[in-house]
Amino acid sequence: MNSATSAPPLQPRTIDEVVAAVRTHGKLLPVGAGTKPALASPPAGFTAMSLRGLSGIVEYDPGEYTFTALAGTPLRDVGAALGAHGQHLPFDPPFAAAGATLGGTIGAGLSGPGRQRYGGVRDFILGVRFVTGAGELVRGGGKVVKNAAGFDLPKLLVGSLGRLGAIVEVTFKVFPRPRAMATLRAVFPDLAAALGALVRLGAAPFDIEALEFEPPGTLSIRLGGAQETFADRLGRLAAFVGGATEIVAGAADGEFWRAFELAQFAAGPGLLVKVPLTVKAIPELDPLLGAAGARRRYSAGGNLAWVAWPGSAASLDALLRSRALAGLVLAGETPNPLLGLTRGDNFRSRIKSALDPAGRFPGY
Q: What phi and psi values does residue 8 have, to the nearest 5 degrees?
């Protein structure tokens, strides 16, 4: 990325202004609040188009558990509106406290600890309106299904990084927020013991809200539900997991998970990188990350790694390729936010050609 020589960002205030900008301006990268700076810095020859001016909840029906909002709406505003009705986005979108927007979260394809039980952002997006590279305003999903390209457009835009179009409006489904939360922290003597417990938990009937692993041997296991049932549930969970355990409950539980936010984890120099993987990959990958001085955390039951990498993007790219893994850089200096092995290039190229035939948005 090359933000040092980029022109000042365009700042449309309405959907019509976004359409006009795409049709007349040329090379654009749609961006949100810039909480993932590696994804918000346009390549050479492109100009950032900030969609923060498109903000506000358009429609919210608590009885139907759905809302529609403009793409630049901050997640914290959405959280406040939903919270007033005892509801939330259960996939715990990251960087909410830092000011992240709905559109930026969709474009980056990011989900937080709640993905363990409820699924990720792609499982909650119902509808979308976006501007294609041809300057056409297209609607997909939701109550009105208009999908001229034959794709599931809402899910297609999850993780698209602003390469397929400029998201301007989204519709999400929401869930009731659990009345109370508590977390069991279990400490094991080494990586193998902790991963063994992680695998057992993945198949156990405990209705786990979140399951995070911090090397070398700490699991954080979150439960939600009625306060009066926690003592029994946590007792059974502790007996099943084994290891030295600590219970975090009440206000302390919320404080603990707020400190787990990626904005805190990413503090400091270097790169912040999302690496999809499986539990089977961790025993060989983790020692390599540790030897390089990287801080790391494994989320969603070991199916995702967050890596705070102290070295260059090139060195991490080589490491990921050696393990047949891919990575997405969210913060830090990198010529390309996509690291490691990429998959589905032919399919992605066909979609790109259909939605952005003139190449008005950056390529992958």
A: -55, 145
The pLDDT of residue 101 is: 98
Residue range 342-348: average pLDDT? 73
Token digits of residue 14: 């309405």
Which stretches within 84-172 are classed as H helix? 102-108, 115-118, 153-156
Bond preceding residue 269 cis, omega within 30 of 0: no
Q: Answer whether 328's CB lies under 8 Å from 108's CB.
A: yes
Residue 238, both tokens: 């502790």
Tokens of 115: 């993905």
Q: What is the mean pLDDT of the chain?
A: 91
Please name which of 49, 232, 88, 270 lies closest in space to residue 172, comparing C-alpha atoms: 88
The answer to whether residue 2 sits within a structural domain is no
Shortest CA distance to 108 belongs to which of 32, 46, 44?
32
What was the pLDDT predicted at 313?
97
Bridge-partner residues for 273, per DSSP?
307, 329
Range of the domain at 139: 57-176
pTM over the 0.85 mark: yes
Do residues 118 and 90 lie in contact, with contact meaning Cβ atoms separated by under 8 Å?
yes
Proportion of the chain above pLDDT 70, given as a percent = 95
Whether residues 169 and 196 fall in one domain: no
Q: Do 229 and 237 touch, CB atoms closer than 8 A?
A: no
